[in-house]
Amino acid sequence: MTRRPLRRPSPARLGAVAALVALAGCNTVVMNPAGDVARQQSSLIVWSTVLMLLIIVPVMALTVLFAWRYREGAKDAKYEPNWDHSTGLELVIWAAPLLIIIALGALTWVSTHLLDPYRPLDRVAPGKPVTAAIRPLEVEVVSLDWKWLFIYPEQGVATVNELVVPVDRPVRFRMTSSSVMNTLWIPAMAGMIYTMPGMETQLHGVLNRTGKFEGRSANYSGAGFSDMWFWTHSVTPARFDQWVAGVRRQPRALNRATYLQLEKPSEKVRPIGFGTVDPGLFRRVVGMCVKPGTDCMQGMSHGGPAVNDRAPRAGEAEGALTREPGEKGDSPHFTAPRGQPGGASDTDSGANRNMTRSIIHLPAPIAGATARTEG
Predict the structure, then answer these.
(1) What predicted TM-score, i.e. pTM, was given to this entire model?
(2) Which of 71, 158, 274, 326 is least enclosed, having the fewest CB within 10 Å?
(3) β-pairing, 123-125 with 211-217?
(4) Is residue 33 within 8 Å of residue 189, measured between CB atoms?
(5) What does the alpha-carbon distance between residue 175 and residue 200 come to, in Å, rounded to a whole number?
């Protein structure tokens, strides 16, 4: 029996095999998520891609066809130098992209409102509407350097770098940042939303199957960014209650002093549990007034009354934004020139270039203050 010589695989076949091997190790959680919101977002990606391919694929195919049909060696191709218009071709060229743009616009309009991260969920899964008996779980999120703080206000507990939620229960995230802008992203659950200092952003999501899913920061925030990730555990309601009871037994208390230590930069932080939480801590983080004696920012997105540590001082001016138009007056103008104007109506007069009248007169120094001259 003669042995047939082995055929060397072609480069195209080797490339296809290499691509399949590479794709086999890819994490397709974005296209196969565990939550209804993320699943709708993946469907939006698929439909948008299909609609765009309706134009891209024919254009790529026609490019190859025209290059082959009208190549230099083609003898049977018609040569029509005076051809310049075809009504049928013009209709195809303009109608097909226009229809696709209309379809993409309608799809974007509907999905933008349906998947608004601030919009409370009206269903937990297809055919499972959110009823009055289903109460969303509220989680307050603070992005720190470089870790995540999760506060459960209803349960009175908090965790660092560990998020646990009940399966098939809507979750409402209220988010802020301690220092720089960041992004919370749990691909299996929902899209990514920014966290910003002094502001509160929101996100609604749900997980429809139990398991452990990765969450991370999706916005570069410094040296410890690569290790700023956490595990999200989706558990049964009974298991969630057990977990809450276990965290409540932790001796640590999350108060203002603990938070000030926690917000200091640190990397590769293991999960931490806090058995008790200061109820007003998150509001103070949003208002940027956790440190004792600092004034909280008012009128921002955190809402609610101010939480300043002290009463207004005697004679302290009230903010202009909170006054009625008739209550607003004038303050002393310390930088106005003194004396008669030194200018002249003649545009060539040298008095118009004399700046001695614009000397700034500062108010008298406070008694007891030490003057310092910048050398």
Answers:
(1) 0.67
(2) 326
(3) unpaired
(4) yes
(5) 5
